[in-house]
Automatic annotation (TrEMBL), chain A:
Keywords: Heme, Iron, Membrane, Metal-binding, Transmembrane, Transmembrane helix. The lineage of its organism: Bacteria, Bacillati, Actinomycetota, Actinomycetes, Streptosporangiales. The chain crosses the membrane at residues 49-72, 98-115, 144-165, 186-208. CDD domains: SQR_TypeB_2_TM. InterPro entries: Cytochrome_b-558, SQR/QFR_C/D, SuccDH_FuR_B_TM-su. Its main location: membrane. One of its GO terms (cellular component) is membrane. This is Succinate dehydrogenase. It comes from Planotetraspora phitsanulokensis. It is found in: Membrane. One of its GO terms (molecular function) is metal ion binding.
UniProtKB/TrEMBL annotation, chain B:
Signal peptide: none annotated. InterPro entries: 2Fe-2S_ferredoxin-like_sf, 2Fe-2S_ferredoxin-type, 2Fe2S_fd_BS, 4Fe4S_Fe-S-bd, 4Fe4S_Fe_S_CS, Beta-grasp_dom_sf, Helical_ferredxn, SDH/FRD_Iron-Sulfur. Keywords: 2Fe-2S, 3Fe-4S, 4Fe-4S, Iron, Iron-sulfur, Metal-binding, Oxidoreductase, Tricarboxylic acid cycle. This is Fumarate reductase iron-sulfur subunit. Residues 30-115 form the 2Fe-2S ferredoxin-type domain. Binds 1 [2Fe-2S] cluster. Binds 1 [4Fe-4S] cluster. It is an enzyme of class 1 (oxidoreductase). It catalyses: a menaquinone + succinate = a menaquinol + fumarate. Its cofactor is [2Fe-2S] cluster; [4Fe-4S] cluster; [3Fe-4S] cluster. GO terms for biological process: respiratory electron transport chain; tricarboxylic acid cycle. Its EC number is 1.3.5.1.
Length: 209, 258
């Protein structure tokens, strides 16, 4: 859970930073997308590093889900008789309680997101347009519901990371400054969410067009 | 929670109790409703159950079985899930130290045993916590014969370590951490023992093997996995901190990587 989660967080950081190129204009954004495909060439064939990263991410996602499912199954086995009274959470960790269903929402989001902006299947411009055109078309004001879905998904990711980051550190045995680690996890999650939602919002209000 | 009321001026309270009754491990068990009248706000929760049991005995009924011993919050015997919270909603308090003044007159109170597969119900609210004993037997000790108590300054221990070890050592093994954990994990208990011994000089030689043996025993008992929800530390009558679990994981990972 912790190790695969860490891989995915590193990906999110890179993804968020790359996205911000949208604010530098169409050329910069498209060039960045092209660079991801050609990095390492001519020493390596095009897409070599990108394909390795993609395989790594798929493996991480699958193992992350496998860990989550086995933890949930162990939990169900460890408490075959449920409490009759409604269990009142005492730790107040709202983010903690979103982990399992939030993870499913994030998975559904990722599927939509790939269909929309990577493969262009559900994008108005289709798969052949430049990445920048797909981005602007995808979050056009008349497709506000797409933007709303993105915002909800980003909120889920923020909550997921708020617990997940700290929890991963704890699982890997980094105790000690408990409050600092928790605050740090919250800060990193917040920065990622703000970085991610900035772009759909900017497209919707016409700052990026 | 009502305002704190004292015995003076507050008449006896009337409560509706919904209690888990289970006649032995093969019985399926059920919730049974009882009315208790004229409960003093100064009674402890267990004294309130004593009053109910006296009445049940006089009426020829089977009294409600529950574990208890010292009744001063240090032995770890008592424990029940009260209105969905292990040891009740009062923080850092065992069931025996919970007083009826924290309940409203006329309230309905649900009382259930710890729920976990490794803690089978023996009868009513009594569960078998031998799984904890087996975790301790797996490594929660120091094998070196220590002889008689040494002079306090014979082996220097840094103050911070001594304090953290002592905090962990206050664990009374009541099992509330397991009862409250959404995963039914015993990580806080096991981690408290590993922290207590692992921070002191006497515990160093067996530190790595201890973590491995105790964690493996914990898993073998059928407890769930830790997802760091923090419910355990919130209900812990001794307030054992979550850092202990990180320390357990660190010790365990060190052995696993060797």
């Amino acid at each position: 859970m912790a190790v695969t989660g860490a891989v995915l967080v590193l990906f999110l950081v890179g993804h968020m930073l790359g996205n911000l190129k949208a604010f530098l204009g169409a050329d910069s954004f498209n060039h960045y997308a092209e660079w991801l495909r050609t990095v390492g060439s001519p020493a390596l064939p095009n897409r070599t590093l990108l394909t390795i990263a993609e395989i790594g991410l798929v493996v991480a996602v699958v193992l992350h889900m496998w860990s989550a499912v086995s933890l949930a199954r162990r939990a169900a086995k460890a408490r075959p008789v449920k409490y009759a009274a409604r269990v009142k959470p005492q730790a107040g960790g709202y983010a903690t309680r979103t982990m399992r269903y939030g993870g499913v929402i994030i998975l559904l989001f990722v599927i939509w997101h790939l269909l929309d902006l990577t493969f262009g299947v559900v994008n108005p411009k289709g798969g052949q347009a430049t990445p920048y055109d797909r981005l602007v078309a995808g979050f056009a004001p008349d497709r506000w519901w797409v933007t709303v879905f993105y915002l909800v998904a980003m909120a889920m990711i923020g909550l997921h990371l708020r617990h997940g980051l700290w929890s991963a550190l704890q699982t890997l045995g980094l105790a000690g400054r408990y409050k600092a680690l928790k605050a740090g996890s919250t800060a990193v999650s917040a920065v990622l969410v703000v970085g991610f939602i900035a772009i759909p919002l900017a497209v919707m209000i016409g700052v990026v067009k | 929670m009502s305002e704190r009321a004292t015995s003076t001026g507050k008449a006896g309270m009337n409560l509706t109790l919904k209690i888990w009754r289970q006649n032995g491990s093969s019985d399926r068990g059920r919730m049974v409703t009882y009315e208790v009248k004229d409960v003093s706000p100064d009674m402890s929760f267990l004294e309130m159950l004593d009053v109910l049991n006296e009445r049940l005995t006089l009426e020829g009924d089977d009294p409600v079985a529950f574990d208890h011993d010292c009744r001063e919050g240090i032995c770890g015997m008592c424990g029940m899930v009260i209105n969905g919270v292990a040891h009740g909603e009062q923080r850092a308090t065992t069931t025996c130290q919970l007083h009826m003044r924290h309940f409203e007159d006329g309230a309905t109170v649900t009382i259930e045993p710890w729920r976990a597969a490794p803690f089978p119900v023996v009868k009513d609210l009594v569960v078998d916590r031998s799984a904890f004993d087996r975790i301790i037997q797996a490594g929660g000790f120091i094998s070196v014969p220590a002889g008689s108590a040494p002079d306090a300054h014979a082996v220097p221990v840094p103050k911070d370590d001594a304090d953290a070890a002592f905090d962990a050592a206050t664990c009374i093994g009541c099992g509330a951490c397991v009862a409250a954990c959404p995963n039914g994990s015993a990580s806080l208990f096991t981690a408290a023992k590993i922290t207590h011994l692992g921070l002191l000089p006497q515990g160093q030689p067996e530190r790595a093997s201890r973590a491995k043996a105790m964690v493996e025993q914990m898993d073998a008992e059928g407890f769930g996995g830790c997802t760091n929800t923090g419910e355990c530390t919130a209900v812990c009558p001794k307030g054992i901190p979550l850092d202990a679990i990180a320390r357990m994981n660190a010790d365990y990972l060190k052995t696993a990587s060797k």
